[in-house]
């Protein structure tokens, strides 16, 4: 077992959607990322749609053409600081787009990518986003990594599929503004416990110099332990959440009835009855 440091980056979301707001978000996001990278982080995760968010949605498909430049910039930082970075972007491919998260390794190489399996109705109708087809898990020097994206969290069948692949770290780039933060936190804790893995949510917060109020982007870039404990939360404002964690973590507890403690992942696999509920 090893201990590693993980950071969830929370750039600022301005009130007005405009090219200047997007540019401000990107530069502040990279500033926060570089600060987190000085903490000897093994992984840093940026939020969903990092290459387009903050602009007017009508400009998203045009802005998405910049994805290669942001990818190169992020790869350079990963190599400079010898850290993995998760970079989520809207990416054009042929006549469609994908809501895609890249996993970049400490040498600046692209390990692979995950395409959001459940794009929302708005994504499909407004940006022609196609659904990903693969439940992908990546092997790294620090364990197995999965990257579900935003709306994916509402589908327990998907997390069941991830669970069977036994990830150690679930990175979760998100916008997720339609729920209140208590509901969001409940889902984070539940999915971490479902997968028996750390879950790292990355989203957007309020600029530090402006007041936050209910109904705005609520931040909550957070790191959740496999047993459901909330280890770190960036709160409502720009910043990042940081945690120093043991990976892999073998979560154990007693079975009901006073039996000796056992690894939860193992005894739940043993007690599953797929013939009764596979759908």
Task: Characterise the protein shown here.
The structure is a single chain. This protein is of the alpha/beta class and 279 residues long. The protein folds into 2 domains: 2-248, Carbon-nitrogen hydrolase (Nitrilase/N-carbamoyl-D-aminoacid amidohydrolase, 4-Layer Sandwich), CATH 3.60.110; 251-279, no CATH class. Helix content is 29%, strand content 27%. The chain is built from 8 helices and 14 strands. The protein has helices spanning 19-37, 60-63, 67-81, 121-127, 156-164, 181-195, 264-271, 274-277; strands at 2-10, 43-45, 84-93, 96-104, 110-115, 138-140, 143-146, 169-173, 198-202, 222-224, 230-233, 239-247, 252-254, 261-263. The strands form 3 sheets. It has a 6-stranded mixed β-sheet, with helices on one face. It has a 6-stranded mixed β-sheet with strand order 6-7-8-9-10-11, covered by helices on one side. Strands 13-14 form a two-stranded antiparallel ribbon. The longest helix has 19 residues, at 19-37. The radius of gyration is 18 Å and the shape is globular.
List the helices and strands and how they pair.
Blueprint: E1 2-10, H1 19-37, E2 43-45, H2 60-63, H3 67-81, E3 84-93, E4 96-104, E5 110-115, H4 121-127, E6 138-140, E7 143-146, H5 156-164, E8 169-173, H6 181-195, E9 198-202, E10 222-224, E11 230-233, E12 239-247, E13 252-254, E14 261-263, H7 264-271, H8 274-277
Parallel strand pairs: 1-2, 2-3, 7-8, 8-9
Antiparallel strand pairs: 1-12, 3-4, 4-5, 6-7, 9-10, 10-11, 13-14
């Amino acid at each position: 077992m090893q201990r590693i440091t993980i950071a969830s980056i929370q750039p600022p979301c301005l009130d007005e959607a405009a090219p200047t707001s997007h540019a401000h978000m990107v530069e502040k996001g990279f500033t926060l990322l570089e600060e987190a990278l000085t903490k000897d982080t093994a992984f840093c995760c940026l939020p969903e749609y990092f290459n387009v968010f903050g602009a007017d949605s009508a400009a998203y498909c045009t802005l998405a053409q910049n994805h290669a430049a942001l990818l190169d910039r992020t790869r350079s930082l990963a190599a400079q600081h010898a850290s993995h970075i998760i970079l989520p972007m809207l990416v054009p491919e042929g006549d469609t787009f994908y809501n895609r998260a890249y996993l970049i390794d400490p040498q600046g190489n692209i390990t692979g990518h995950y395409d959001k399996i459940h794009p929302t109705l708005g994504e499909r109708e407004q940006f022609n986003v196609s659904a990903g087809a693969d439940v992908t898990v990546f092997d790294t020097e620090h364990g197995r990594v999965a990257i579900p994206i935003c709306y994916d969290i509402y589908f327990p069948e998907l997390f069941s599929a991830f669970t069977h692949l036994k990830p150690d770290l679930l990175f979760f780039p998100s916008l997720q503004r339609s729920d209140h933060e208590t509901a969001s936190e409940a889902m984070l804790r539940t999915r971490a416990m479902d997968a028996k893995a750390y879950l790292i949510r990355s989203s957007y917060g309020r600029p530090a110099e402006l007041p936050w109020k209910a109904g705005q982007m609520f931040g909550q870039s957070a790191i959740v332990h496999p047993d459901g404990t909330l280890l770190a939360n960036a709160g409502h404002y720009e910043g990042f959440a940081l945690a120093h964690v043991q990976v892999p973590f073998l979560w154990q507890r007693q079975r009901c009835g006073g039996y000796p403690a056992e690894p939860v992942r193992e005894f739940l696999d043993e007690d599953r009855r797929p013939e009764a509920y596979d759908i």
